[in-house]
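Why do we bother with holo predictions? Because pocket geometry can differ from the apo form. Keep that in mind while you read this record for MU-OXO-diiron.
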Amino acid sequence: GYTTNRGTTYNAYLILADKITLIDTVKSPFKDELLSRIASVINPVDIDYIISNHAEMDHSGALPAIIEAVKPEKVFASANGVKALREHFHFDYELVAVQDGDTLDIGNLTLKFLETRMLHWPDSMVTYLVEDELLFSQDGFGMHLAHSKRFADETELDLMLYEAKKYYANILLPYSGLVAKLLERIKGLSIKTIAPDHGPIWRKEPETIVRWYRQWAEQQPGRKLVIAYDTMWHSTALMAQAIADGAMESGVDTKVMPLRASDRSAIMTEILDAGAVAIGSPTINNGLFPTIADLLTYMKGLKPRNKVGATFGSYGWSGEASSIIAQELHGMGWELVGEPLRVKFVPDDAAKQKCRDLGRLIATRVSEKCNDAGKASASGD
Ligand code: FEO
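The structure, written out:
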C-alpha cells in the first residue's frame, strides 16, 4: 500500500570483530549482490554469526541462502523472531533466541539486544554495538530512499525529512505509543550512530531523526488541513476547492490532494502533522467512490489521532457518500466539524458558499484544537 517513488535500500551490516558478524540480510532477489559485496571485504565463509533483527522478508528473505553459503556458527533472533523465521522458511536450522537486554560477546566487541515488539512486527528487535555506541535499528529511523550518498550528513535534509516522515506515517504511526516508550528507553543509551535497515546512516547528529520521531509520536495536531477527494464529473472537485478557499482565508495551511494525483501513502504523509482532514467522494451506486473506500481502509489501519474531520461530496440521486465517510471518521474517534455536506449535481454559488463556510469552520476548530494542545503541552498535561 506504500509507493516508494524514490526507491529504497536494504541495508545489511558486517562487523569485522573477532567473531565476524552480519546484521540482517536483504530481500531474496538481492542475495547474490549481498554475497558479492561481502566478498569484496572478506571471504563470506568467514562470517561467524548472523543477527536477524527483523523477520520481515525484505531483511530475512535472503537468510536461508546466506546460511547455506556461509554456514555460520550461530544465527540469533528474538524468541518471536525465531518462531517467525521458522514459519516463513519451514527450515530446521537451529536458530538461537535472545532475550531483551542479553549481550553477546563477539571477541573484541559486545552486542546488546533490545526487543522492540510491534515496532513494527512482534519479532522486532534492535542491536546496540556497545563499544562504538552504534544502534542497528532495523526499520526504525529508516526511510525508503535510494541515494548515491550513504550517510545522512551527505544527504539533503529536506528530502530525508519528507521520506522519514512518509515512512513513519505509513509504517509506524499505529504504534506511536510504543515509539514514545522506546525513545524514553534509549535516552539511557549513548548513541553516536544510528544504522537503519533502509536509507541513510546517521553517523553525525543522530539526535536529528530522534527529535523528528519524538514529535511524530506525540501526534500533536498542526494548524493544517488536508483535503483528500475523488470526483466523477468535477463537482466534488469544485466543492474541495471552495472548502480550501474558506480554510486558506482563515490562514490555515491547506493541502488539496485529489486521489488521481496523490496516492494513499502521500496523503497519509500529509495527514501525520495535520489537525484537520476533509474527505470528499461522489456517491456511486449508493456508496463510496472506490478510491475513497481504499483510502479510508488504509487510513483506519494506521490509526491517526487528534484530528477533526469533515466530509463532502456531490451526488445525482441518493447521496449517501458523505454520511458514510462521516460514520467511518466518527468510528476512528475523530471529532466531526459541521454536518456531512452534499450537493446535488453541480454546486451553484450558494452551494459553493456553504463549502467556503465549512472551510472556515474547520479552520476555526483546528486553530482552537492547536491552541488547546499547545496549552496542555506547556502545562505538562
Ligand atoms: Fe524493512 Fe519491516 O521491513
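Residues 349-378 form the longest helix (30 residues).
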